[in-house]
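Here is a protein:
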Amino acid sequence: MDLIIKTIGMAGLLLLSWAYPAKAQTVEAAYIKVTNERAQKIISQMDIADAETAGKVKGYIAEQYQNLSLIHEQRDEALAQVKEQYEGDKKLKMMDKVEKKSDRALAKLHKKYLSQLNEVLTADQVDQVKDGMTYSVAPRTYKVYQEMVPDLSQDQQEQIWSWLVEAREHAMDAGSSHDKHAWFGKYKGKINNYLSDLGVDLKQAEKDMMERQKASTH
């Protein structure tokens, strides 16, 4: 890596980053095993009658995990090199360039992945895959908001759900459990501000929800 940097410079290195398909890179056998297990766990919770389709979807999911991992690794390596090579504003500028290039690679991969899934699954099944990759945080969080603020209008509920769906799209491409939850945390902050602007006292709403749940168990 150092030899490459000395030969073409950091700018040239960044132009080469993510220039080739992620699957052309090397994925460790141990991680392939992990991604296959993750994919199988998602598939096992879905109702896919055709075994061939189930196998194809499992392959798509496992490959997506592998490709995401490679893009994140390449981004982290490039960021580390930038931090070693530059200081001050130049470092910040180069880091931003790396992040943007990574985001473009993720967006391209995301689009291709969804296209693959949509070819063989229904819209509801695709949502199941998305929830499987993000620990079902979106539907679970939506249910909590509905229980916490039961008098939300239909439009208000739809707005909250649309933000959670948007968070899920980002979380699908995150590289770790922590990063996935961070995306939902960001959008929950937006939702909480939205509810506060509507005049909802969230602390009181949560307290009332707990009281209702407690009363329903007795």
In short: The chain has two domains: 2-127, 134-216. The longest helix spans residues 51-85.
